[in-house]
Amino acid sequence: MTESLPLDGRSLTLAPFLAVVRGRCPVSLDPDARHRVGEARRAVERAVRAGRPIYGVTTGFGSLSDRTIAPAEARTLQLSLVRSHASGTGPALPTDVVRGMILLRANSLARGYSGVRPEIVERLLELLNQQLVPYVPQQGSVGASGDLAPLAHLALALVGEGEFVDPSGRREPAAAVLERQGLAPVELHEKEGVALVNGTALMATYLALGVADLRDALAAAEVAAAMSFDALHGDPASLDDRLGELRNLPEQRAVAAALRALLAGSGLATPPTAYVGQDPYTLRCLPQVFAAVVLAADFAEKVAASELNAVSDNPVVMGGDEFVNGGNFHGQTLALALDTLGLATTYLAGFAERRVARLVNPALNRGLPAFLTPRPGLTSGFMIPQYLAAALVNENVSYAHPASAISLSTSADQEDFVSMGAWSGAKLGHLLANTRRVLAVEWIVAAQALELRRPGAGGRGSEAALRAVRELVAPWSDDRSPAPDIARVTDAIADGSLVRRVRADAPF
C-alpha cells in the first residue's frame, strides 16, 4: 500500500502534488497541523461568543459586508453562502483538476489560519482517499475573491446538496453518494463556508498541472525537433555551446546540450561539405526558442511553488484573537503565470508546424519526395496532416490571448479589478492538448522522413525515437487515414511513455 502523504500546509511540492492528484497517493492531516487548526478554530468561537464584527463570520459578504449577522444566524450564513455561490456552468472540470482543488484547499486550511474545525480538513482528505469527485463546472470564476463558484460547488457536495461525478462522467446526487460511502453530510459552523470558497485552489491547480504538462511537451518537442533536424540535414554548428555562453543564457545552453545528445553519432546532421546557405530558423534557432519556453516554465513553477502552500483565505486568524482582512485570494500572480505558460505553449506548436511544413515540401526538404510519399500524385502522403497542424496552430492563437489583460468589476464594484485567471487556466488546457497533437504530427512525419533517408542514419536519439514511434505507427506506403496514428502518438506524448522510451536508449 502506498504510504500516506501527511499534509501540514507548509511543505507540499510539485512532485507529491502530482502523486496525489494523478497518482492517487493517499493523504492524511499532520498531527501538528491538526493542533494549529484547532487553535485557530477556538479563536473563531471566542469571537462569535463575544459578538465581534468579523467579515464573513458575523457580517455579510462582498459589498454586503456592512450588514451585521446575529450570532444565532452565523451558521446559517455559511450554508447560505455556499448555496448562493454555487452558480457555475459548463462542462465538469477534469478529475485531476478537481482533485487538485480539494488537495490545495485542504493544505491551505491545514496551515491553521482559517478558523475551520479539523474535521473539515479531514473530510476533504477523505474525498481524495475514497476517490470521490464532486461535480465542479468549469465556468464561473473571475479569479479574484478566490475561485468562488467552483469552490462553492465543491463545498456543496460536502454538505450533501451538490453532486459527485463517477469515472464514466455520470453525475449523482451528493447525498446518495455520501450515504453509500458511510459519510454524513458536513454541517458548516461559523466561518467554514467562507474558508472553503475563498481561495485560489482552481487557478493554482491549473498552474501546477500546466507546469508539469508543459515540461513534458517540451521534452517531446526536443525529440521531434532532433528527428526533423536529422531528416533535413541540419548543420549542428547552431548547437555549439559557445553560442549560448556568448548569449549569457543558461537555458539556451541546456537545450543545445540536450539536442546534441539526441543527435550524437548522426550521419545526417553533419556540417555541409560545401556552402549551401544557412538553416531555417526552425532548425538554427532551436536553442533560443526552446529556452524561452524553459524560462516561462521556470517562472510559472516559482509561482506555483509558493501557491501550493499559500493561505488564500480572508479574513485570516493571526496569533491570539486577531482577525486580519486582506486580499490573498486575488489571483493576479497566478493569472500572469498561466497566461505566460499559454503563450509559451503556442511557441512549441507553431515551431513544430513549420518544421512539418518544410518536411513535406519538395522545394524545402532537401531531396525528399513531395509529402513524403513513395508515389506522389497517386498518393497524397502527409499533405493533410500538415493542414491539421496548421489548423491547430491557428486555433491556439485565439486561446493564447491573455485572459488577465482585461478586468470586469464584480460585487457592485467592491471587487473592481479581477484577474480572470480561471479562464487563463482553462485555455491552457486547450493549448496543451492542441500542441500535443501538433507534436504527434511532427513525430510521425519526421519518422517517415528519416526512413526515406536510408541508408543514412540519424543520431542516437532520433533513431531511438524512430523505433519508439514505430511501435505505434506503421511506415507509410499506400494512403490510409492518419487520424488513428495521430491519436495514438498524441496519447503516448500525453502520458510520457514515448519520451521515456527514447530516454531509456538515449538519455538527454
Give the low-pLDDT segments: none
Terminus-to-terminus distance: 33 Å
* Alpha-carbon Rg, integer: 26 Å
State the name of the first-level CATH class of the largest domain.
Answer: Mainly Alpha
Chain-wise SSE layout:
Elements: E1 5-7, H1 14-21, E2 27-29, H2 31-49, H3 74-85, E3 89-92, H4 95-109, H5 118-129, E4 137-139, H6 148-158, E5 163-165, E6 171-173, H7 174-180, H8 192-197, H9 201-231, H10 241-247, H11 250-263, H12 281-284, H13 286-307, E7 316-317, E8 323-324, H14 332-360, H15 383-399, H16 421-452, H17 460-470, H18 483-494, H19 497-505
Parallel strand pairs: 1-2
Antiparallel strand pairs: 3-4, 5-6, 7-8
Helix pairs in contact: 1-4, 3-6, 4-5, 4-9, 9-11, 9-13, 9-14, 9-16, 9-17, 10-11, 11-13, 13-14, 14-15, 14-16, 15-16, 16-17, 16-18, 17-19
Can you tell me about this structure?
With 508 residues, the protein is mainly alpha-helical. It folds into two domains: 5-199, Fumarase/aspartase (N-terminal domain) (Fumarase C, Chain B, domain 1, Orthogonal Bundle), CATH 1.10.275; 206-505, Up-down Bundle (Fumarase C, Chain A, domain 2), CATH 1.20.200. Helix content is 55%, strand content 5%. It is built from 19 helices and eight strands. It has a two-stranded parallel ribbon. The chain has a two-stranded antiparallel sheet with strand order 3-4. It has a two-stranded antiparallel sheet with strand order 5-6. A hairpin with a 5-residue loop joins strand 5 (163-165) and strand 6 (171-173). Helix 3 (74-85) packs across helix 6, helix 9 packs parallel to helix 14 and helix 9 runs parallel beside helix 16 (421-452).
